[in-house]
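In the laboratory, one determines a bound structure by crystallizing the protein with its ligand and collecting diffraction data. In a computational setting the workflow is compressed into a single prediction: the sequence and the ligand go in, and a structural description comes out. We illustrate the idea with adenosine-5'-triphosphate.
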Amino acid sequence: MSRLITTDALTLAYGATPVLRDVDMHIDRGEIVTIVGPNGSGKSSLLRGLIGALPAFSGTVTRAPALRVGYVPQSLAVDATLPLTVARFLNLPSRVARADWQAALVDVGAEALADRQIRGLSGGQLQRVLLARALLGAPDLLMLDEPTQGLDQPGAAQFYRLIEEVRRTRGCAVLMVSHDLHVVMAASDRVLCLNGHLCCQGTPKVVADAPEYRALFGSGTRGALALYQHDHDHDHHPHDCSEHA
Ligand SMILES: Nc1ncnc2c1ncn2[C@@H]1O[C@H](COP(=O)(O)OP(=O)(O)OP(=O)(O)O)[C@@H](O)[C@H]1O
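The predicted complex, in structure-token form:
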């Protein structure tokens, strides 16, 4: 398995204020890795740091040579008065071969949407179209920032199944930020738990059993609620959770 991205003691900051300290992580070809953590814990900042949009304050990010990254944003602000079909949207900012955009739509199960107006799509349909657009560059790594925000639970579960299918057919790695803890635990190969630093990382089972994760999210079905009520009053240092397995 080859490394796509590796960070070494990566610290990210806005101005002089560090928001994420000393992160050691990696992403390998073909794996699905999910970043979880409370609001403001640095999840989106880490994505920005990994693609180079936010330069390292200290430490390093190493990307595989000629790494192709496809980015799926949380949502898309579309001018409601602007007529824009899905097919045209997929050809912006530059034209793409018809066979390529059609194949991308087929891969995300949205081939019937080609002539629909973007502004008339449901949340789930729009996410599929955004995913199709990210696939056009044949990415080695797909990055998704809270891709299921605004979708109901069955819609979110369906979207994660789609991600797994895309990973299988395209062979790309997937790095996503998610708040859907239960689905994340089922759909990820590895989980990174952030809170201003890398609290713990490992397989879903290892992370779910880690005291750092439980302190953040609790255990059982109330875990998701604990996410928003966390005071981070525990004392620990970043490390690999595998020692808790
Ligand atoms: N452009 C910016 N300038 C200054 N501070 C920022 C900027 N973007 C984010 N921050 C701060 O960095 C910290 C981490 O933010 P980030 O968006 O990475 O967190 P997050 O875990 O993705 O949060 P959420 O779950 O709410 O999306 C927060 O304290 C945030 O206020």
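The longest strand covers residues 3-14. Keep in mind that any predicted model is a hypothesis to be tested, not a measurement.
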